[in-house]
Design goal:
This is Lipoprotein. The structure is a single chain. With 120 residues, the protein is mostly helical. The chain contains six helices and no strands. It has one domain.
Amino acid sequence: MGSSQKLNVARSFTQIVMLIQLSACSPQSTSFKTVCSNFDELLGLNNYSQMTSIERNTWLLNKSLETLPTNDMALQAWNAIANATASERYELYRDAALSTGLKSWNCESMELAAYEVGAN
């Protein structure tokens, strides 16, 4: 096998490995991580303690819409769960994440404060 053929095989192998890695990163995983990161940022806001639950929820949704489409599963899940009983929000959201096929999911900041962020 000539050097040009070896180079082509190496390129093909690299492309296959990249495709496998990309398919392993589900969009749901990325979306749920995005919402969690936005929740982290929300908790770090200087005016967080002065905001109402509804204002916090609005901020979270608006921030998430900067990078996620309106039909994104993670965003839609939070939008629905924001109306749930405050003490149940984190578990419901975690269940929603796991229902997408993720093997595990957690968000420490959301676990600590999801009851403070919602539509009611």
